[in-house]
């Protein structure tokens, strides 16, 4: 449905990504951020699904062509560890937002695992975004504190998660509340990565519930 494209970062460098356009002209936009596996077909499928729901969707390729097989956690950790998160957010992710805002539309962001953390980071640093819906990802407080969030959040977390642990989620929620932020936070009795239908942790029922919530959130804030 979509296609690979190039777009400009604010620093003038070229970035690439997968763009799935909505059927309607001047549709609102959503930037989709990959898991630590790279720009997998599953993330492209998320962009396609958002396009069918009426959004222009762009998934920037933060690994510049590297896609890690699902079984190779060591390689995924190495790829994520090599990513300059601030450069990726301030340049590639912001460039994707600027691309989607060309027609004056509002733009949101969503992301999964590593992409969830980047989505929260972008909610603190990228002025082009109107709202963010991160999935099971929290950035380190050294780079983004909950008090730094500038836009509405809708957060989705798994209760069975050894990366975004329930304790970390509780602390994140408490800090958002203490800072008086506009947010919703949902927990699912599922495993980390439950939205990814290509992996064993996938939970269809929770995925569809989270999806319906996220679409409602984006329609509310991006209309």
Task: Kindly estimate the percentage of residues that lie in beta strands according to DSSP.
Answer: 15-25%
What is the class in the CATH system? Alpha Beta
The CATH homologous superfamily: Alpha/Beta hydrolase fold, catalytic domain
Order of helices and strands: EEEHEHHEHEEHEH
Structural class: alpha/beta
The largest beta-sheet arranges its strands as 1-2-4-3-5-6-7-8
Q: In the residues, how many domains can be counted?
A: 1
> Which blocks of ≥5 consecutive residues have pLDDT under 50?
none
CATH domain fold name: Rossmann fold
What's the architecture, going by CATH? Answer: 3-Layer(aba) Sandwich
- Whole-angstrom Rg: 16 Å
State the separation between the terminal residues, measured CA to CA.
Answer: 23 Å
Compute the number of helices. Answer: 6
Overall pLDDT:
97
Q: How would you characterize the overall build of this protein?
A:
It is globular, with a radius of gyration of 16 Å. Strand 3, helix 1 (41-52) and strand 4 (56-60) form a beta-alpha-beta unit. It has six helices and eight strands. It has an eight-stranded mixed beta sheet with strand order 1-2-4-3-5-6-7-8, sandwiched between helices. With 223 residues, it is α/β, with parallel strands linked by helices.
Jot down its keywords.
223 residues; alpha/beta; Rossmann fold; 8 strands; 37% helix; 24% strand; globular
Question: Which helices and strands occur, and which strands form pairs?
Answer:
Blueprint: E1 3-8, E2 14-20, E3 29-33, H1 41-52, E4 56-60, H2 73-82, H3 85-100, E5 107-112, H4 114-125, E6 129-135, E7 153-160, H5 166-178, E8 183-191, H6 204-222
Parallel strand pairs: 3-4, 3-5, 5-6, 6-7, 7-8
Antiparallel strand pairs: 1-2, 2-4
Helix pairs in contact: 3-4
